[in-house]
Structure formats: C-alpha cells, structure tokens
Design a protein that fits this description.
By secondary structure, this protein is of the alpha+beta class. It has a single domain, classed as Roll (Ubiquitin-like (UB roll)), CATH 3.10.20.30. The chain is built from two helices and nine strands, in the order βββαββαββββ. The strands form three sheets. Strands 2-1-8-4-6 form a five-stranded mixed sheet, covered by helices on one side. The longest helix is centred in the middle third of the chain and has 10 residues.
Length: 119
C-alpha cells in the first residue's frame, strides 16, 4: 500500500490506485475541496507536492491548470495514489466560505484519463 504523508496532518496507508482527492478525505480526514465533483473543471482540489510528485498527468489536468494559469500545484482529483507521496493541502473547506466541500468524486479518475508527461 502506498504511503500518503499530508503536511501538518500525518502519514496514512492508502489503497493502491485510490484517487488522491478521496485519500485526502477518507484516510487523512482533511476537508479538501472538490467543488466540481472531481472532474478537472474547477481547480479547487489543488495540492502542492513536497515529495513524490508523479511524472505524468492527465490531459484534463494539464489543460485546466494552463487555462487558469496555475503553476506549482496539482489537482488531487486527477492523481492516483500508486506510490509514496507527500502533499500540502492548499484548498480546504475551512475558511473558503463554501457550504460544503463538493459532491463526493467517483472512485475512478474522471474524465477517463489520457496520460501525458507533466510540464
């Protein structure tokens, strides 16, 4: 099982292949935002990688980050926990003014991932 370390929260074992956005909520118990329901549309599920950033990303993640001009962050809804990683949650319900974190994302990455090199 991959190890997920969440900065200032703790260290957690995560089922291999689980979406990072779900691991942050289920295993780590964070209030990670995901306003669009985890379909790479809104960028509210942003995280910063401290270690173990994946070398690949989905085309959907790449497109939305470029459209929003977001750099130095990744979308937790578009990342599978398939290796050890350390992240900092930067988009949280607390302090956001939102009523809830968003509709629970589906288990598989959506839209169906087309993988590309990061960067």
């Amino acid at each position: 099982m991959p190890k997920l370390t969440v900065d200032e929260v703790g260290e957690f074992e995560v089922p291999a292949g689980k979406r990072l956005v779900l691991a942050l909520r289920d295993e780590a118990g964070t209030d990670q935002l995901h306003a669009c329901g985890g379909v790479a549309k809104c960028t509210t599920c942003r995280v910063e990688f401290v270690a173990g950033e994946p070398d690949k990303m989905t085309e959907a993640e790449k497109a939305v980050l470029a459209a929003k001009g977001a750099t130095g962050v990744r979308l937790s809804c578009q990342i599978a926990c398939d290796h050890d990683m350390t992240v900092r949650v930067i988009s949280r319900l607390t302090g956001s003014g939102r009523v809830d974190a968003g509709k629970r994302p589906a288990d598989p990455i959506a839209p169906p991932p087309v993988w590309t090199a990061k960067g």
